[in-house]
Amino acid sequence: MADQTLNIPSLVVAAVLVFFSVRYFFFSSPSSTQAASDRNTANPVHIEQLAQMFPQLNRRDIEWDLQRNGGSVQATTERVLSGRGLERPPPSFQPIQPPPSSSSTAPAPPPLRPSHPDLITRYKLESRILQPEFPKPEEEEEKPNVPEWGKTKAERQSLLQKRKDEMVLAARRRFEEKEREKERTRKQ
Questions:
Q1: pLDDT tens digit string along 55-76?
Q2: Per-residue confidence band for 18, with pLDDT thresholds at 50, 70 and 90
Q3: What are phi and psi of 20, to 5 degrees?
Q4: How many CB atoms are closer than 10 A to CB 44?
Q5: Which helix (H) or strand (E) is 34 found in, with range?
């Protein structure tokens, strides 16, 4: 046992072990620094999600809170819903800039609302307003209060539309009567 020699395979194994140990202790890999920086930044998708849920909040405040709590959307949501609000970030905090969105990820513009000034125009009841006489409320009360219900879908739909039209016209009639009352009181 006094005559020990080092053979080539044992030297290769020793060199490989020394190489990896030196690399491990003295050089940091780029993937570990990237993972550390990812823990310190908030995910832009989470910021966008919270900004859509709570439009009254500032994106900078949302990002600061997500960064402080480790990116937990649930913790930030709980903080907002409990009424505590979000803390203001310090002036030195610089939020990440969202990546430029492409046309496919850009939110669609809100649908344009039709510009109908009132219910009469919306339900196309102008012709019924121009009729000289509306049915009086007393005449409506004299009708028997028997619910009419059509047998087919089209009949039910037309009956419901007719009732809706009558309700809009009755509201219009009440409004006009109130306006006439106001005019009479102003003249007196």
A1: 888 888 888 888 888 888 898 8
A2: very high
A3: -70, -35
A4: 16
A5: helix 30-40
